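Reopening this one. Same input as before:
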Amino acid sequence: MTKKNNMIYIKNTQRKIKINENKIKAYIQQILTICQYQDFDIGIWFTTNQTIRKFNKTYRKKDKPTDILSFSFYPELKAGEKIKSQSDDDKNLGDLIISTEFAQKDAKQSGRSLHEHIKILLVHGICHLLGYDHITEADYKKMKAKEESILKKLS
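Same output, byte for byte:
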């Protein structure tokens, strides 16, 4: 049986803010490798505040834009559990939606470049796809530790 190569799907429907898709793909590939999911697919959609607001309202009942939304292929996965895929078709982490407008505003407020901030958002979103969350203080601490561990290993 041949080993599956992963697909990193990037869709960019916003036109205001330039993003370097090759750099973003490289970040994602590094993150997936660090997390030992280098042969899994993932979709990333860069969009506007207006679009992400609709998704946030529909799926989270929050009528406001946000920086990132995560839609896991394995919604029952618990933080720290390893995905056991049954076939190549199951080798999918899920999808992330990122508002570049929101990310740019956050990046400026935190004194980071947009690409540095997007790298942090990608780590955060992928952690969500892997079952991490920040609903309780204990969950937050576990997720923050995972994010920091990944970010230290990223080049």
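So the earlier flakiness isn't reproducible anymore. For the record, The CA atoms of residues 47 and 99 lie 5 Å apart.
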